[in-house]
Each structure stands twice: as C-alpha cells, then as structure tokens.
Design goal:
heterotrimer, A alpha+beta (756), B alpha+beta (285), C alpha+beta (159), A: 756 residues, 19 helices, 30 strands, C: alpha+beta, 33% helix, globular
C-alpha cells in the first residue's frame, strides 16, 4: 500500500480557478501593440500546377502591410520526419490538396486581410487528381510527388516467426477486411499563432503548440533563422489531441509576415480552416488473416494495411509504424506478418490524432477477435484472457513489456458490467461488446529521442520553482508534475511555483504527445526534485552539523529523522546556503529513454523502444432500434492499466473524455470527402457528441505500478480512446447481428444490415 | 462584408417602408440563420431591419383558433405550459430544434421564412392546416402555409413583405398529436426526417376519424402525406391499416441522397416515424 | 464610410456607451473592444456554445448576435459570474469536481449552467443534459461537468 501524501490524491487542477473565471489567457486572448492580422490563401483545387502568382493588387489595398509567397521563404521542405520532408511552407510548383497554402497577407484587421486574399491572382492549371489510396497505388495514377513511385511514401514488411507454419497449425482461419474513416480532432480552440519579429532579428512566437521546443527547432531549420533567435512562449491551450504538434504554415507565415512588415502578426484559424487545413486521423484499410486453434490460441496473425496519407507526410510514416507495433504486440502471438503501405492522395493529410494508428489497428483486430470468439463458441473475455500479454515479457516483435495489467482490466470490466449475468439474460436488441488494447505509456525513442528536462530551484527565501519544458494542453500535466515534485520534497503542491513550456527558461522537452508526459517529464521532474532534495539535506547538514542521512524532508520543512521537534524551515536553509555558503539550490533532471535495442528497425518499428506499455479493456452496453438502426449507448465501462494514478480524478477525466471521443468516431464522426472537397467542415454537419448523447460511463483505474515509471505511473491520454470503437461495434453485433467492418457504424449502415 | 445600415423600427409600417429605401435590405428577427448566412458571404445586406421591437407579434393566444405572432421564440413555445397541455407536439418540435442558445433567439416566423425542407415548424404548422398572414405596403393577405413554401429555402415572400402571424384554425385544435425526428450525428442534428402527426380517433370504435401527416426533410419543402391521410381517415385502426398508412406516407416522400444519408434510408425512416407516431398517439390517454 | 452605431448597454453590472460597427458581433465587441476575453470563439456559427452569454435573462451564442442588438440590453458574461472575491458555487463546483480540463468550453458551460439553474433550480439530470446540449466539450466527456452541475444545484438549493 502506497504511503504517499500527495501522489494518488484527488487534488484540484491548479489551473482550474483561472479557467472557471475566464481569466486564463489563451493565445487568442493576447493583444500586442501594433498587432496585425494574417490570413492564408489556400488552393481551391485538389491537384494543380501553379503557373503564376501576382500579389500586386493585394499590396495596393489600404490596410495591407505585407504579402508573402514561397519567394519569401528559403524553399526548404519540412515534415515531422525530416528525412521524408515533402512540404513547403508555401507551395511554388504544385498544390496537392484543397487547402494547400499558396500565400499569406497581414493587414490591419481580419476583413482587410480576407479582402486582400481575393486580390491575389493565382493561375492554376488543374491536374488529374486521385482520392482513393488503392487507385493511387496503381500504375498510371496521377503522380502526386515526384520521385515517389506509385504514390507510396513508405512501404515496409515485418515478419516474426513463421507465418505460413502458424497458419498450417491453425484449426481455423479468419480473413476479413476493415476500413476506418478520417476524424477531425475538434478541439474547441482552433490553431492560433502570434509572431513578433523585432528589428534585432529576434522572434517570439505565441503558439498553442503541443511541442514548443521542437517547434522552435523546426522553425529554425525551415526558415533558416538561428535557433538562438527564436523563443516560443506558452499560454493555456484549448485542447489539441495531436493536431497542434507540427510546424504548420500558420506558424511560419506569422514569423515571415512579421519579419516583412516589422509588426506582430496574429493568425487565427476559423473552424472551417481547422477541418480543411489542419491534420486529420488517417483513414485506413486493413486486411487481416488470423489463424486460431480450437482452444482459442492465436497461432498466427497477418495484416496488410494501406494508410491513406493524404497529400503530405506529416506523421504518416510513424503512424503506420505504430499501427504495426500495436497490432503486433497485443496478445502473445509468435507468428506475425505485417505489410504496410503509406499512400498519397489529393486530400487533406493525416497527422497525429489521439491513438496514432492504434485505434485503426485495434478496431480491426478487436473486431476479428469477436468473430473468432463467436465461431469458437467462446466468451470474448475468455478468448482475450487466453491470449493476454503478461508482465515482464517480450513480444514476438521484440517489444519489452514491463508492467501489464491487461488481465486485470478484462476482469474489472467483466465484474463492473455484470457481464456473465447480462449475457445469460440476453435482452432483445440489446448487446454487450468488449475490446482491449495496448499502447505506449511513455512515448518512445523510435525517432531517436524521447527527451524531457526539468529544473527545480529554491531561492534564498525558500520558495520553490519548478521549470519544465512539458506542455499542458488541458490534460493537466501542470498539476501532475507539480504533485510529483511536491511528493518528493514533502511540500503542499500549492507551494510550488511553475513555469512550463517557455523555450527561453525551460529545459527542452520533446512535447506533449505519445502519452509521454506523465512518464517522461515525470521522470525528469522527480529526478530534479530528488537532486534538489539531496542538495537541501546536505545544506541543512552543513548548517546544523547533523549528518544528512539523519535528516528528512517532511511537512514543508526539514526534521531530524523521526523527530517531531526542531523543524528547520526552508527559508533558514536557503538563507544559509545563499548568504553563508554562497552556493545555490538547483535540482536538475533529464530523461531520454529507453535505450534503443540493436535490432530496432526504424522503418517497421520492430523492437519498438517504448519505456512502458499501457493496457486497457473497454466494454459497451448498447440498445439498437431495429426500425432505424440507431444505437443508444446504455452503459460504458473502461478499465485502464495506467501503472499508478498520480491524480485519480484527472485520470478518470482522461478516460471519460477519450471514451466520448471514441463514441463519436465509432458511430457518427466522419470527414466526408467528395473529389477532395470536404463536404462537412463545420460543427453543424460534422457532429461531435454532446452532453445529451452520453451514457453512464464507469472509469476503472488498474494500478500494477510500473517499475520504470515515476511513482509507478504510465501514460493514459491516448489509450483512453483506442479500443472504444470496437467495444461498441462488437456490442452492436451482439444486439442485432450486424457486423460493421467499415467505420463509422452509422444508423443507415446498421439498418441496412438488419434488413439483410 | 460591407458595413450596413441598421434600423430598428417600432412599427410594421416603418419596417416595410425601409424596404423602399434599401434595395438589399434584410429582416432580422432571431438572427440564427441570417448571421450564419452573412458569415459565409451568402448574404451581403445593405440594410438590416431589426423587427424585434415591433409590438403585438411576439406572443400567441387563442381567439377562435390559435394566433401565433411570428416573433414568438422557439423557446417560448418549448416552455409554454399552456401549449404543453393543448398542443404538446408544438413543444416537441421546439425542443428538437437546435440548442437552448438558438431556441432563445430563433423565432417561428424565422423558421418558416428560412424555409428549410426540414423546418420543424414547417412540419408542425403544416399538419395543423395553418395559414400565414403577410403584410406589405399593399395591405395584408392570408395564405395557406401549404402554398407558402415553394422550394428549398424559398417562399412566396417578396421583398417588402413581412410574415406577421401564423393562424391555426379552430377546427385543427383538439386532436392528439406528436412530433418526431430521426437524428444522425448528435442530439442537435437537424434530422434526416421529421414528422408531425395529428390523429383524431374514436378509440371505442377503433376508427380513425381524421389523420394529418406532415413530413420534413424528405421533399423540397415540408409536405403533407395526403394519400396516406386519405387512406386512414375514416378507416379502421389496426396494425395492418397503420402499417399501410406508413407505407403510403413513405411513398409520398421524395427525399434526396446526400452526404448525410441516402434517399432510400430517408424513405424508410418516414415509414418508421409514421408507424411510431401513430402508435404513440394511440397510447396517449 | 464605416457606419457606426451608438449603443448603451449594461455588461456585468457596468454600463457602457459605445460606438460600434454595425457588422460587428456581440462576441467581437466583448473580446476585442472591451477586453472581456473570457467568452471564447469556437466556431463563430452558434454550434459550439463557447461564446455563450446571458442576454436579457436568456443564454445565447454571442457570435450570432450583432453588437448593435446589445443596445439597452443587460448582459452577463463569465467575468460577471463571480461576485467580489468569492467564486460562484457553480465555479467552485467545476473546480472541485474535476470538470475543467483545457478550460476553453468552461466559460460558456458555466454561463449556460447559471442560466439553467436560475430558470430551473430543480433541474433533473435529463433537464440538465437537454439544456447543456449546445455547449460542446471535447476533453472531459461531460461526466464530471454533470457532477459539477448537480453539485452546484444542491448548493444553490440549500442556500
């Protein structure tokens, strides 16, 4: 039983008070002196050659201060994968999707900027376009990027064990194809950016980015601005879910416009801009073949995957890698074959979206598992327990599993939902469905690094100040990281001041994504706090003459071990340290792990280096109206192995939020493309769940304590929606016998399935 | 969007004369459709005439039939205890329209004049055999609501004409009724199909005296399923006749296929909604 | 020639005399001219509720209200919810129940909750879900928002 005084407690989010009063500053709330407003000109054709761009009329418009095109850039391609960079800040030769950036203006107000856009004369020669990845891969398809054969940006194969032998040893073979649709992140705050480029060539960027330190690096590389000249500053962020990781043209445009006219420039995406021109979840096609014994052991599994990249790379290459890793490492299967193709199409392109390829893979795998259970006449939970991963195992694709609570999560939802009883009762049109998942609980070093740094200082008055490069995007990392530091230093969290994300003052952190902040930034923060603690005790020892090993931190001060008397205040020790010893009190922490295995394949992500893996099982109970196909969610149970809940109320919040985002993806959210045009770029036609649509949701925290995680913790943010869709879709099958293999499971599809 | 003239007349006469002055004048009631249109540059007004201060057309009363002022908000309908007793289907139609923020501003007049094929109040008032009063500089005229809609988002209204009242004849009042809508996405969805059914039945004899079925989102305008109505009015009320009524109504629907749903599915939904609607009304005490 | 219109309006108990562009929305007036940036823009089309304010006693999406329509109106924004130093019980409940994650939907959510509990002090869970369905949240899944609203209702009922 843990004996923590802060970690594990249901403590208030430290930013909540400023948010409930409307005082919290978000990027859109910031006004700078002389600030101008920027707008971006985007392609209206899905594929075209740029013949000419004439900005002269736009420049003449009163109130316009700057107009930029590719001529104002060093013409360097960028991508989150630098070796696969394929996108210019402004395209100069071709545009490849409706939304592709061509130019930008800065003006005294948004309306003038918008008017200026319509005065920019762009001559486009329309080229044949392709929108379906299967079509795009064929010989003779329109070429989207030069030097990219069959529009295939990335292709790899991974083989583990002996797949044919595995199939030959199977009693049953299952073959199915599953497709998933594009999803929009729909954070309520859109992308907003302000850049101030001053006459001494310094630029400050206020951006609602998930990764300020990497953004600084990418801006530097892409725009040929010295890294030492760029500062990225952080305000509160109104949600992100992966959409705000990348360097976007928006950031670069702000910087370049500000440079050109000498005034700060703000660009605010409209909601329509968000749908059309920010990243989406990659649509996918996955052909599965599973070989199973009659006892229910999965002997072999094979996936042939096509990931619809859209027009550019962004996270596509790693999303496909993750699709493979998570498909392959869930369950103990020795014989695995995976082939993946990442294919360009002339559509808005995919990026990081909560789950990062895992929801797509898990939908396919967990649906076929349900089909297997049915064929074998086996309880779906039993089937999963038979094949479940165990702690301290290495999977066939060489993924190291440390802690593993998968079995516990299966048992937990079974119990909470009254699974056995309800299955026996089997009410008409009502169904139960279950699905499990694996994901990283601490990012990975797949791209070579997984760094987070932190410093924690105590000033001469004894005030503690934590500085972390990690970014709070709403998930509450500010609170979590301070709690960890407070636990180590035995202080109240409220006593710790916090600076986060400012690239001038904080040590670099790779950013908030990959469910890595609690683990990686947490490791750095606890290391820094331990470092400060050691130094503090040493100073106290020097001050009092008592050996450091006989002193301890407790109740916001220092005591002789086990003694209740003679409390030494921090201010005393700090005063002594700075004034008498002329020394400082700074703790430093840095994490960049784990070590990459020698057999790691950066293409397929074989031997994927995640520091800890998170697991979960979710269970849905639904009622289906046979006359309309409409699904009513009744109850939802979500058991998550998160190692250790640093703050249970916030962990529950992640699970609940992820589940609801998963409900939308499962049942109704779909970016509707027609010849490359998005037909529903607004909340009216692309609908996310409202408070009226949610069922009872029961989050269950499973805490096996990871040996590598800070206080045993692993990540949770993305796992929260990875297995939601298949749980619901399996429940729909249980209710009305309709098996949806192409997402979303909207009412029309279900109705047609019932009719058959 | 250019800056426009903003007028807030306190009489209909002033409102109407403003149209003479400004070619591109638009009426502003709740604004929930107008401002969206302006934001998308579909509407570029030279003048906006805010009619919210015009008296006597923002409430409703019974006077030999119901008179609804066009400026009655959707929320006022939803929250009316009187209407919940007398014509609960109107409250259902209101509750199923958008969010509370929209309902607090949107008006029934606006809902009709915007003339969406799925207008909740298009369906509801159509089922009630309503008429609308239109006032212009030429005086006033009363038009059957059936003749008011001419196509998707188009009505007979000309510039300078103001819809002031919706009149529900006395004969329409008293039937039990229901409003139903099938949503796709989330609970605020405009719906793939909606219906209002008014049923006047003799439960002892098991006979339908009169039925009125109005359907929305399944034709260029809200429409009545006249053949279905003719079939059931005066007929027995049993599962077979009800099913046939639903089938006939679905045949009269002429929905389109668009990115939200196929025409086929919408037709099926009509059948289901009519079935459910009639059966629900029969269960009402 | 920019047409400006004179309005007189009361916002959070304070009266203002302002000259506004006719094409300006109430949301823009609040955020840009009056620096009341607590009210947020999420979509600009009345679909997300982030810009909710109380206008003459009714909760509305300020992106669909013209600034000129604020003439002679009484408006409450998130900045006017708390009185003095203390948080309003609704705000306190949102903090206590973990109902705030990114916080972007929070001002609109709280303003709508205030309007609701004033209109329906005895709101059932079904009433709450119906009333708040115009306020979108992508972070919380709404579960703890409902907890907070229930909690606030009890506090306000018990005085």
């Amino acid at each position: 039983m843990d004996n923590y005084s802060v970690v594990g407690k249901r403590i208030k989010n430290r930013d909540a008070t400023s948010k409930v009063t409307g005082k919290a500053t978000f990027t859109g709330d910031i006004k700078l002196r002389g600030m101008l407003f920027g707008k971006i000109l985007r392609s209206w054709l899905p594929h075209a050659k740029i013949l000419s761009i004439d900005v002269s009329e736009a420049l003449k418009l009163k109130g316009v201060k700057a107009v930029i095109t590719s001529k104002d850039t060093p013409l360097k391609k960028y991508s989150i994968h630098p070796l696969m960079a394929d996108k210019l800040v402004f395209e100069n030769e071709s545009v490849r999707y409706i939304g592709d950036e061509i130019a930008a203006v800065a003006a005294i107000d948004e309306e003038t900027a918008q008017d200026a856009l319509s005065l920019i004369k762009v001559e486009l020669e329309e080229l044949p376009a392709v929108f379906d990845p299967v079509e795009a891969m064929k010989d003779g398809a329109p070429v989207i990027h030069d030097n990219c054969e069959n529009n295939t940006s990335k292709h790899f194969k991974m083989e583990c064990g002996d797949i044919e032998k595995g199939f030959s040893e199977s009693d049953f073979i299952f073959e199915e194809t599953f497709t998933t649709q594009g999803q929009s992140h729909c954070s309520i705050e859109t992308h907003i950016c302000i850049a101030e480029y001053t006459h001494d060539h310094q630029v400050t960027l206020w951006a609602n980015t998930q990764a300020p330190h990497p953004l600084r690096q990418r801006l530097s590389q892409t725009l040929d601005i010295g890294l030492d000249k760029i500062r990225v500053v952080h305000s509160h962020i109104g949600g992100a879910f992966g959409s705000k990781i990348d360097l976007d043209t928006t950031h670069a445009a702000c910087v370049l416009l500000s440079k050109k006219c000498g005034q700060p420039v703000k660009i605010t995406n409209t909601r329509e801009d968000q749908f059309i021109a920010t990243r989406i979840r990659h649509p996918s096609i996955c052909e599965l073949k599973f070989g199973v014994t009659k006892e229910g052991i999965i002997v072999a599994k094979q996936a042939r995957t096509i990931i619809d990249n859209g027009a550019y790379n962004s996270h596509g290459p790693s999303v496909m890698g993750y699709h493979n890793v998570m498909f392959s490492s869930l369950y103990r299967v020795e014989n695995i074959s995976y082939e993946g193709s990442l294919v360009y199409t002339n559509k808005n392109y995919g990026g990081a979206c909560r789950g990062y390829g895992d929801p797509q893979a898990t939908f396919a795998q967990e649906t076929i598992m349900d089909m297997i259970a049915e064929k074998l006449g086996m309880d779906p939970i039993e089937l999963r327990l038979k094949n479940a991963n165990n702690p301290n195992e290495k999977t066939a694709n060489a993924v190291e599993i440390s802690s593993c609570g998968l079995r516990e999560t299966l048992e937990a939802v079974k119990k909470a939902s009254n699974w056995s009883k309800k299955r026996k009762e089997k009410k008409k049109y009502r169904g139960l469905g279950v699905a499990s998942m694996i994901y990283t609980g601490g990012g990975s070093r797949g791209s070579g690094f997984n760094y987070s740094g932190a410093t924690i200082q105590m000033d001469a008055s004894g005030t503690i100040h934590l500085l972390t490069g990690a970014t709070d995007i709403g998930q509450g990392s500010n609170t979590i990281l301070v709690m960890m530091a407070a636990e180590v230093l035995s202080v109240e969290p409220d006593q710790i001041r916090l600076t986060a994300s400012d690239t001038d003052t904080t040590l670099p952190c790779m950013g908030t994504f990959g469910s890595r902040v609690t683990f990686c930034a947490g490791r750095a923060v606890t290391q820094a706090a331990q470092d400060l603690k050691k130094k503090l005790l040493q100073q106290a020892s020097d001050m009092t003459g008592t050996p450091a090993k006989n002193l301890e931190l407790r109740d916001n001060g220092i005591f002789i071990s086990k003694s209740q008397e003679n409390k030494i205040e921090f201010s005393q020790v700090a005063g002594f340290c700075y004034a008498k010893k002329q020394d400082t009190l700074i703790g430093i922490g840095y994490y960049d792990g784990p070590e990459i295995a020698p057999d790691f394949d950066p293409k397929s992500y074989y031997a994927y280096p995640g520091p800890a893996m998170a697991f979960a099982t979710q269970l849905a109970e639904v009622q289906v109206d046979p006359l309309t196909g409409k699904v009513e969610l009744l109850n939802f149970y979500a058991a998550h192995d998160l190692g250790k809940a640093i703050n249970p109320i916030m962990a529950e919040g992640q699970i609940e939020g992820g589940a609801v985002m998963g409900f939308g993806w499962a049942l109704s959210e779909e970016i509707k493309f027609n010849n490359g045009r998005i037909l529903n770029p607004n909340f009216h036609d692309y609908q996310i769940f409202t408070i009226k649509d949610i069922p009872k949701i029961v989050p269950i925290l499973v805490e096996p304590d990871d040996p590598n995680g800070p206080f045993g913790a692993k990540g949770l943010g993305e796992p929260a929606m990875v297995c939601t869709a298949p749980a619901i879709i399996n429940a729909i099958y249980d209710a009305v016998g309709v098996r949806i293999k192409d997402m979303p499971a909207n009412s029309e599809k279900i109705f047609n399935g019932i009719k058959k | 969007m250019k800056n426009f003239e903003y007028l807030k007349p306190t009489s209909l006469v002033d409102a109407i004369s403003a149209f003479k002055k400004f070619e591109d004048a638009f009426l502003l009631a709740g604004g929930t459709d107008l401002l969206v249109g302006m934001r998308h540059n579909l509407i570029n007004p030279g003048c906006i005439i805010d009619i919210k201060d015009i008296p006597d057309i923002n409430t409703f009363e019974y006077k030999n039939g119901w008179n609804f002022g066009a400026l009655t908000t959707i929320r006022d309908i939803e929250a009316s205890m009187t209407l919940n007793q007398k014509m609960p289907f109107l409250c259902q139609a209101a509750a199923a329209l958008g969010s509370i923020q929209v309902r607090n501003r949107a008006t029934i007049g606006g809902n009709l004049c915007n003339a969406s094929p799925c207008a909740n109040f298009g369906t509801a008032f159509l089922a009630l055999d309503s008429q609308v009063k239109i006032i212009s500089e030429n005086g006033e005229k009363i038009v059957a609501l059936e003749d008011f809609f001419t196509g998707p988002n188009t009505t007979i209204l000309k510039k300078g004409e103001v819809l002031t009242q919706i009149l529900v004849p006395r004969e329409s009042v008293g039937s039990k009724g229901i409003f139903l809508k099938h949503c796709t996405g989330n609970s605020n969805d405009i719906g793939l199909a909606n219906i209002t059914i008014l049923l006047d039945a003799d439960s002892k004899k098991g006979v339908c005296n009169k039925i009125r079925i109005a359907m929305g989102a399944v034709a260029p305008t809200p429409i009545r399923a006249k053949q279905a109505e003719m079939f059931l009015s005066g007929n027995r009320l049993d599962p077979d006749t009800i099913a046939e009524t639903a089938r006939l109504a679905s045949n009269e629907a002429v929905p389109i296929t668009d990115f939200r749903a196929s025409a086929d599915y919408r037709t099926q939904l009509v059948k289901t909604l009519v079935l459910k609607g009639i059966n629900s009304i029969l269960k009402m005490s | 020639m920019v047409k400006k219109y004179q309005i007189q309006t009361t916002i959070n108990g304070e009266s203002y005399e302002l000259l506004v562009d006719t094409k300006m929305t109430l949301l823009q007036l609040l955020r840009e001219d009056l620096d009341l940036t607590g009210t947020k823009e999420g979509c600009g089309e009345g679909d997300c509720g982030a810009c909710s304010v109380i206008l003459n006693g009714r909760v509305v999406t300020s992106c669909l209200v013209l600034a000129v329509e604020a003439d002679n109106a009484v408006i409450t924004t998130i900045e006017g919810i708390k009185t003095g130093e203390k948080l309003h019980p609704i705000q306190e409940s949102f903090v206590d129940k973990g109902a705030v994650q990114c916080g972007f939907c929070t001002p609109g959510m709280i303003v709508t909750t205030k309007a609701m509990l004033e209109e329906m002090p005895d709101a059932s869970e079904e009433d709450m879900k119906h009333y708040l369905s115009g306020n979108l949240c992508r972070c919380t899944g709404y579960v703890k928002i409902l907890d907070a609203v229930q909690n606030a209702k009890e506090i306000l009922k018990n005085g």
